[in-house]
Write a structure and sequence with these properties.
By secondary structure, this protein is an alpha/beta fold. The chain contains ten helices and 13 strands. It starts with a helix and ends in a 10-residue tail after the last strand.
């Protein structure tokens, strides 16, 4: 009888393990527009595979219709979970309702879609940056840094926005605008999307230099580092010294931005971590065990610049010196 019980128990454990290994996870990514996005994709895909689950991955190539098609394909294929980050903020109600109707748990990362659902039961949890706070941090850093170097008068700013309608673009723009509204000396003199890409960042910065004149620009604020790095090339091509003639502020804190800060080409980057794979695995594992999670979780993030010590939030937290943290950057 004991041997029979042991065999039954072993079989039950084997079935449980097999069930865990049999999980299928669909992951629809917005595209590969930046170093940040590549790191995000690699981290999430690697974590899902290392957990022993089957991954069905789809690259939407920056098109909402591709993501809608991918989600519907996930439903048809009978996935157990969908990991979703929205290329734009709106227009998702119909396809996400289909996910809800099929009873597939939806794990949101990075970009949060706006919906007209009556409550928040349609998704399990969201993990990603606080985009309005990231934009506000950039604005506060600019204000405090310019004061620290004795700048007087207006601060003339060129802004490169991300992909129009993307959650990161909407949030970072809103947060930055809130700081500008409270500080009349901050003037946005040129404002255009660079679609989060290095190539468009360079092209739009070239246009800005021609439109308003280099001598009238104090600061470039780019809503991601790739656009900032592209803008640096345009500034150099115009015979100017980035980081000195024009202060350069980016967002994401990718390794290339740290290298640019250390080289003197860039002044500041606001962190937005792409490393979300461990959180995805934690959530799916927990959901399988019957756990629930907070609806919104933001990672702890910092701001990095040339020398450190510049306040960037209402709590008085100050920047860290980029050179001291370059070696630890994984992306």
């Amino acid at each position: 009888m004991k041997k029979l019980f042991a065999l039954v128990l072993a079989f039950a454990l084997l079935c449980t393990a097999s069930s865990a290994l049999a999980l299928t996870v669909g992951f629809t990514q917005v595209g590969q527009e930046s170093d940040w996005r590549t790191a995000n994709t690699d981290d999430v895909c690697s974590a899902i595979k290392e957990a022993g689950w089957e991954l069905i991955y789809d690259d939407a190539q920056q098109k909402q219709e591709n993501q809608v098609k991918a989600v519907r394909n996930f439903i048809t294929q009978g996935v157990d979970y969908i990991v979703f980050t929205a290329v734009v903020t709106t227009g998702w109600d119909e396809v996400l309702q289909e996910v809800v109707d099929e009873g597939i748990p939806l794990v949101l990362i990075d970009r949060f879609p706006e919906t007209n659902f009556p409550d928040d039961s349609w998704y399990t949890t969201y993990f990603g940056g606080d985009f309005p706070e990231e934009g506000a941090r950039a604005g506060r850093w600019i204000l405090n840094y310019m004061a620290s170097v004795g700048h007087e008068g207006d601060i003339n700013i060129v802004r490169l926005q991300g992909t129009t309608g993307a959650d990161a673009q909407v949030g970072r723009t809103k947060g930055f605008d809130s700081v500008v509204a409270a500080n009349p000396s901050m003037k946005i003199i040129f404002d255009q999307t660079g679609n989060f890409t290095r190539a468009e960042g360079q092209a739009v910065m070239e246009a800005a230099l021609k439109a308003v004149g280099a001598e009238n620009i104090d600061v470039l604020w780019a809503e991601n580092d790739d656009m900032a790095l592209g803008a640096i090339e345009a500034i150099k091509a115009a015979g100017l010294v980035p980081g000195k003639d024009i202060i350069i502020v980016g967002c994401d804190a990718v390794k290339a931005a740290f290298e640019a800060i250390v080289a003197g080409d860039m002044n500041c980057t606001v962190e937005c971590t792409p490393l979300m794979g461990d959180r995805v695995v934690e959530v799916i594992t927990g959901l399988e065990a019957g756990q629930t999670f907070e609806k919104t979780v933001h990672p702890v993030e910092y701001v990095y610049d040339t020398n450190g010590g510049i306040a960037y939030d209402d709590a008085g937290n100050v920047t860290l010196k980029a050179a001291d943290h370059l070696a630890e950057r994984l992306y």
